[in-house]
């Protein structure tokens, strides 16, 4: 079924989102602020970029110890994750700044992690945010046959062990990005007509992907191999370790918000109609975690407030904590769920329980 044929039923609970939007707009008006980033966002951006690039420069110049070099790669992993979660993410949603140039520049920082911002916008903005947890539409729950993230997918015998091995595969996430994933997505999205959502032509997008990959490998792998006094195999180990850690972090943050027991995985009928209001479906298929953890919220770009992010992706994450009270109270007023885990640990536990359930439950 074509993506353009999928429609959400607006006949039920439509007043919830209208009321919520009105209240959130009032919040910004009453507080005389905008939905974009602020000084705290600028400081965080500088910090995360420095956390990625300073250890890299040290690797090329002064670090001579193997163990110290691995610590530098570890810090780079934290910086890479921070750039993706706290900067690039908001920018590619147009929420970082009023300036399209600033959003484009900050969103393009994905290239320093080896990924394509154009492919990310299609997968994340167009597919994941529109069709959250819709099997066959949301690619975030389609990691391939090795994992089963949806009850509507075929269950294979080895899936009953996925709650053990999934964590290792999360570590492969960014390694796939820097190698084959962007190219596969570009070809698939072109066939589906999804590349039209980007302003650039397909040939230009493909050219940018190729050039950015060459530059990425040239800078972040070849230069350390040439200039670092560390043995080449430790340099490659550090590079792989950086991506593995980043993949695990990203996997835990995003999958713990959607592949959880409270999700209902809506499916369209034969006419392409999903019997749920879009905003209500976001509430059901999204879960917050650790709302009281200031450090976690700061580091992961407010993505522990996934409910608020999915309902208002064009609002910068620095505002999520404040508007979460409005979202929760409005959901309760309309007798709608507002899913939230008290801690990050409990969110991961719920995700593990869902992996186990999906590994043993027959296809719906």
From TrEMBL:
GO cellular component: membrane
Chain ranges of the Fatty acid desaturase domain: 66-340
Claim: Mitochondrion is one of the keywords in the record: no
Biological process, per Gene Ontology: lipid biosynthetic process
Keyword Chaperone in record: no
Highest rank taxon of the organism: Bacteria
Gene Ontology molecular function terms on file: oxidoreductase activity, acting on paired donors, with oxidation of a pair of donors resulting in the reduction of molecular oxygen to two molecules of water
Record-linked PANTHER family: DELTA(5) FATTY ACID DESATURASE C-RELATED, FATTY ACID DESATURASE 2
Organism: Brumimicrobium salinarum
Protein name as it appears in the record: Acyl-CoA desaturase
TM segment ranges: 41-60, 66-89, 101-122, 164-180, 201-226, 232-254
Keywords: Membrane, Transmembrane, Transmembrane helix
């Amino acid at each position: 079924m074509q993506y353009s044929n999928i429609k959400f039923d607006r006949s039920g609970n439509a007043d919830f989102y209208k009321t919520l939007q009105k209240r959130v707009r009032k919040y910004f008006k009453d507080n005389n602020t905008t939905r974009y980033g602020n000084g705290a966002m600028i400081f965080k951006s500088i910090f995360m970029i420095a956390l990625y690039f300073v250890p890299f420069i040290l690797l090329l110049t002064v670090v001579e110890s193997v163990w110290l070099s691995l610590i530098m790669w570890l810090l780079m992993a934290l910086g890479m994750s921070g750039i993706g979660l706290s900067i690039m993410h908001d920018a590619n949603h147009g929420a970082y700044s009023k300036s399209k140039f600033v959003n484009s520049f900050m969103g393009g920082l994905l290239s320093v992690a080896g990924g394509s911002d154009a492919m990310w916008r299609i997968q994340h903005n167009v597919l994941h945010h529109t069709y959250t947890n819709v099997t066959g539409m949301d690619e975030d729950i389609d990691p391939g046959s090795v994992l089963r993230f949806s009850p509507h997918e075929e269950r294979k015998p080895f899936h009953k062990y996925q709650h053990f091995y999934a964590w290792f595969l999360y570590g492969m996430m960014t390694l796939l990005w820097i190698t084959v994933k962007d190219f596969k997505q570009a070809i698939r999205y072109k066939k589906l007509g999804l590349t039209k959502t980007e302003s650039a032509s397909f040939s230009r997008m493909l050219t940018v992907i190729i050039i950015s990959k060459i530059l990425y490998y040239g800078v972040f792998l070849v230069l350390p191999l040439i200039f670092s006094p560390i043995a080449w195999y430790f340099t490659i180990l550090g590079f792989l370790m950086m991506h593995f850690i980043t993949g695990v972090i990203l996997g835990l943050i995003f999958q713990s918000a959607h592949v959880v027991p409270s999700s209902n995985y809506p499916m369209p009928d034969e006419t392409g109609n999903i019997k749920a209001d879009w905003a209500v479906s976001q509430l059901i298929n999204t879960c917050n975690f650790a709302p009281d953890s200031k450090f976690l919220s700061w580091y992961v770009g407010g993505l522990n407030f996934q409910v608020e992010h999915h309902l208002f992706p064009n609002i910068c994450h620095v505002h999520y904590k404040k508007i979460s009270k409005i979202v929760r109270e409005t959901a309760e007023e309309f007798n709608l769920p507002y899913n939230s885990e008290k801690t990050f640990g409990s969110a991961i536990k719920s995700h593990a329980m869902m992996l186990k359930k999906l590994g043993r439950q027959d296809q719906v």
